[in-house]
Amino acid sequence: MTESMFKPGAIPKQVTLRESAARILLAQIMSGELNEGEIYSVAMVATNLGISPTPVREAVLELADKGLLTVHKNRGFTIPVLTKPMMQEIHHIRFLLEAPSTVRAGMQLSDADAAELRDLAEMTVEAAKSGDLVNYVELDREFHGRFLSVLEMPLLVRLIMDYRDRARLIGLRARLGSDEIIEAAKEHIALVDAAVARDEAALARIIANHLEMTLKRSLEGC
């Protein structure tokens, strides 16, 4: 485990230590910075974050419940191996669920929803430009979850978000700040614009491209 992965002082003060540890671990899993099959110690993660093992252990159990990591009693945790066919299946499920749901949500977006989502979208672009991995992953996740929430179908949204969390973008940290990732972040703004215009075709085109490019970047790391 490298020092750059978990740095002291990385925990923001406005959320609980468990929530912050879970955010950091999720970002590391999704970006592929935690190696598949390698055993990671809760104590080591806690030390590198500058917090006690308890909130890290709670975060690990939370992510294990979602199938994002595997706990090994008295040893630590590992990241499950995600093969290319498994990655393709995850993205196929996302195309089936997330694409039409995003279009439907966009056609229902209120002005207040749009204003809030535009702020989130712009913050995501800034995180992409600055290279802030944890904040970028968190804002990207928050944007899509908030966008879909207008459907008022929490079970569907939870299912979609679970599959989003299972996808991996190997090497994401190195790509942050690149034109490729900044343009991907800007697609969030385009989604809001299309929703405000009630342009169903544009919504479908933007989310399809967003998912296709995500799959492409995921498979490049397999």
UniProtKB/TrEMBL annotation:
Residues 15-82 form the HTH gntR-type domain. GO terms for molecular function: DNA binding; DNA-binding transcription factor activity. Keywords: DNA-binding, Transcription, Transcription regulation. Pfam families: FCD, GntR. InterPro entries: GntR_C (IPR011711), TF_FadR/GntR_C (IPR008920), Tscrpt_reg_HTH_GntR (IPR000524), WH-like_DNA-bd_sf (IPR036388), WH_DNA-bd_sf (IPR036390). This is GntR family transcriptional regulator. It comes from Pseudochrobactrum asaccharolyticum. The lineage of its organism: Bacteria, Pseudomonadati, Pseudomonadota, Alphaproteobacteria, Hyphomicrobiales.
